[in-house]
Amino acid sequence: GHILDGTVKGVWNYFPQYLQKRGILDNAVGHWYIPMTCSIGGLIMGILSIKLKPSFVVADFVRALSGSDADMSIFPTKLMPALSNLLLLSLVTSTFGFSVGPEAPMVCAGGLVGK
Question: For 1-52, how does the pLDDT look when each residue is reduced to its tens digit (9 = 90+)?
């Protein structure tokens, strides 16, 4: 929670304030901050998604962790290593806005917390 709060405040509060103080983000450029930031977030999300090459997709997590046919036996050996990648992707989508990339990592992370 603290990491997410820090990254969101950093991207959407502190960084714009820093740019304004430096004279980089004035009224002429300021209205482009949101589209530029979302685009950068989408680029980061795309690069991470390619580099991390997830071995499990959302359906695998849902099948393993919910419903009557839940198979928790595969969690420690197969799903646990993929969890850090999932949480990193979730952090990126949450920080830069859900519209920049797949919401699936956030759905899975929320499902894991809610279980």
Answer: 788 889 989 998 899 889 888 888 777 677 788 888 888 988 998 898 888 8
pTM of the shown model: 0.66
Structure tokens at 10: 């950093």
Q: Print burial letters for 68-107: b (CB count within 10 Å at least 16), e (below 16).
A: eeeeeeeeeeebeebeebbbebbbbbbbbbeebbeebbbb
Distance of alpha carbon 23 from alpha carbon 69, whole angstroms: 58
49-74 pLDDT per residue, tens: 888 876 666 666 666 667 666 666 66
For the chain, give the secondary structure using H, E and C: CHHHHHHHHHHHHHHHHHHHHCCCCCHHHHCCHHHHHHHHHHHHHHHHHHHHCCCCCHHHHHHHHCCCCCCHHHHHHHHHHHHHHHHHHHHHHHHHCHHHCCCHHHHHHHHHHHC
